[in-house]
Amino acid sequence: MNLLAGKRIVLGVSGGIAAYKAVEVCRLLVDAGAHVMPVLTGGATRFVGRATFDALASERARMSLFDEEDPIPHTTLGQTADCVVVAPATARVIGSYAAGISSDLLTATLVATRAPVVVCPAMHTEMWEHPAVAANIATLVGRGVHIVGPESGHLAGGDEGAGRLSPPANIAAAVNRVLEARRQPSDMDGLSVVVTAGGTREPIDPVRYIGNRSSGKQGHALADEAVSRGAQVTIVTTVDRPAPPGAAVVRVDTAAQMAEATAAAAAGADVVVMAAAVADFRPVAPVGVKLKKRDGAPAVHLEPTPDILAALGASKPPGQILVGFAAETCDLVRNAAAKLRDKGADYIVANDVTAQGAGFACETNEVLVLSSDGRVHSIGLRSKRQVAQAVLDLVVADRVAQTAQQENQ
Ligand code: CTP
């Protein structure tokens, strides 16, 4: 499981030839969705440029205890970090850390943090095997610091022996393991969830389309909430909103593209939530060139789009929980109940899109959730994230009941 997504990681780089490999560590952590804050020692910049980290990391690289923008960078970094990783860690940095000496920004951050720390030593074999270094490492291990490497192999200057920095992929994996060990279990751990979001756009010509007013906020709030509760999320979306770190994002435009992407993702999913506003009709034959005004009002012939939710309901694998939405302007319960029945969903989240503080583009929502066993849950006016939380609470309760039932059989 990728626990790096969304985590704040201080990447400390000290001065050894292996500092160039820290660039790759930085890239791997950023690619996994971590927010990487590089801290370089003066020695590190003799081997690798600060600009490289400025460009690759999530924040500019820092070097000094005295920062114009932040008067106390070591505590800011140490207190906000989920993990501090030092790669490479020289004998000097290891010694300072073990002795609690905070003479530069990196060692001050190490002393100031309560986050887990991963130290990846790299140095010549003679230094690594020196009793002082061995004693410092033992001190750090005794304090719960995680030591990764070093490995044996070629060293700078043509030497061979113990002291090589661990491969960057091993370092990133070690940081992930450390975060995993500290993580509290969550109620959607291991669940695979597919969420659709936004309104589809059905082309009339290369410039114009038939669309709707969906902003995608409720769908994205559902994806955010599911990720924060430990689910593996795929979001099929028509909007450019940021997706939660760690989620797989599939960008689509039309109902046909959404149908294809959702069917593929839903096949093995535990939970599917169709929050998207899918167009019901599309132009039969979109024109390849822009329609011209001088040619007069065009006749646009429409045909129905595939009903994605109904298709998912008809082919629902056992145990999967299928949640649809209903955007209504009148007869909320009657219309939503008909959709629940006709589309084979387990839940329909119904909202009156004309109500104050609810529906398209609002930050808030107010919904009724109808379930296939006849229950109706009223979720009063609250933020879309809180609505997402309440909807997923129902889904999780169903999963718990399903599991209990299976265990009793
Ligand atoms: N939906 C779908 N495919 C469509 C149309 C709708 O999967 N072609 C899904 C929506 O994502 C939503 C649910 O069906 O989860 C209900 O959508 P809604 O627009 O409220 O209702 P429609 O089925 O389109 O019916 P109507 O527009 O007549 O209310």
CATH fold-level assignment of the largest domain: Rossmann fold
Strands side by side in the biggest sheet: 12-11-8-13-16-17-18-19
Structural class: alpha/beta
What is the subunit arrangement here?
Answer: single chain
Q: Any guess at the CATH architecture of the largest domain?
A: 3-Layer(aba) Sandwich
Q: Number of domains in the coordinates?
A: 2
The main pleated sheet reads as: 8 strands, mixed
Question: What is the share of helical residues?
Answer: 25-40%
DSSP summary, beta strand count: 19
Q: Proportion of β residues?
A: 15-25%
Q: Kindly, what is the distance between the CA atoms of the first and last residues, rounded to a whole number of angstroms?
A: 31 Å
List low-confidence stretches: none
**CATH homologous superfamily of the largest domain, by name?**
CoaB-like
Tally of separate helices: 13
Q: What form results from the Cα inertia axes?
A: elongated
Bound molecules: cytidine-5'-triphosphate
Q: Give the mean pLDDT.
A: 94
CATH top level label of the largest domain: Alpha Beta
